[in-house]
Amino acid sequence: MRIPFVVLLCLLSSLSMASDWLLSLEGQRTQGSLLRGQVENGVAVKLGDRTVRTTDAGFFVVGVGRDADLQQTLVLEKNGEQQSVPVTLEKREYAIQRIEGVPKRTVEPPPEAVLKRIRREVAEIKSARDTNSDLMAFLSDFQWPLTGRISGVYGSQRVYNGKPGRPHYGVDVARPTGTVVVAPADAVVTLVQQNNYYSGGTLIMDHGYGVSSTMIHLSEVLVNDGQTVKQGDPVAKVGASGRATGPHLDWRLNWFEVKLDPVTVVPPMKE
Predict the structure, then answer these.
(1) Closest CA to 146 of 168, 124, 175
(2) Alpha-carbon span 172 to 153, nearest angstrom
(3) Of the candidates 186, 209, 204, 207, which has an alpha carbon nearest to the alpha carbon of residue 252?
(4) pTM of the entire structure?
(5) Cα separation, 149 vs 221, whole angstroms
(6) How far apart are CA 137 and CA 119, in angstroms?
(7) Do residues 65 and 31 touch, judged by C-beta distance below 8 A?
(8) How far is the C-alpha of 140 from the C-alpha of 265, rounded, in Å?
(9) Distance, C-alpha 248 to centroid of its chain
């Protein structure tokens, strides 16, 4: 049986680390990972120069992006004193994925009339991911929102219809249209877009302290903006909307604007 993350942190709290104030730091030390930790009471945390929010018990979460520097530094401060904790990441290699048959309208430069819509949709997604709520579901063990064949991985360089695109920032799970998708952890729904130009049916759920899940290419969203959901609750259905060539779930994980690999927070998939 897996030990709940919060319990695991408590069990590890007596371990000696690079700083007496850092009680634990858990997560895969790779580019694209989510790291969760705990500091001694009253300690402030920064990742480099960025202030990191902590709970009353000292728990915190940070994310490092796809191409993050391999040497990161947690800066801890208490009573005017500082301690620096180096965090060394493993470099990841990313594959090139060539995808043919993508709808032409989502690959060619859109007409000016469409750009206004795209900018609005992008701004709505950015705003939802900027949510910094008091929810602490980010400390829980996440589950796969859907199981099936992995058809796309985080970080891969995408080439659409022969034209280079941006890297892929999610994990794709191929299943038939209409297959139910569930919440990977407790959350509050912060955005529902039924027909985004690029991502089609889009759902964003807030897990607290800047951590959010995004589900895209959905055929249907089953929840409403502002709704509270529990881990395992049905939230959407698989589709092939937006820039997609077949039905699948594209699940993305963010720490604010930092795009992370969802695989870093779930156990190996069991179908």
Answers:
(1) 175
(2) 6
(3) 204
(4) 0.88
(5) 22
(6) 30
(7) yes
(8) 10
(9) 17
DSSP letter at 262 equals G
For 143, the token pair is: 């589950």
**Of how many residues is the chain composed?**
271
CA 89 vs. chain centroid, Å, equals 18
Residues of the chain with pLDDT under 70: 1-18, 97-109, 158-165, 271
DSSP 8-state assignment for residue 26: E
Return all residues near 42 (Cβ < 8 A) that are at least 6 apart: 78, 79
Q: Please, are residues 71 and 88 in contact by the beta-carbon 8 Å criterion?
A: yes
**For 201-241, what is each residue's pLDDT tens digit?**
999 999 999 999 999 999 999 999 999 999 999 999 999 99
Name the pairing type of β-strands 157-160 and 96-99: parallel
The secondary structure of residue 179, as a DSSP letter, is -
How far apart CA 33 and CA 39 sit, in angstroms, is 19
* Those residues with Cβ within 8 angstroms of residue 100's Cβ, 6 or more apart along the chain or in another chain: 161, 162, 245
Give the CA angle between residues 7, 76, 3 to the nearest 5°: 10
Helix (H) or strand (E) holding 9: helix 5-12
Burial 203-239 (b: 16+ CB within 10 A, else e): bbbbbbbbbbbbbbbbbbbbbeeeeebebeeebbbbb
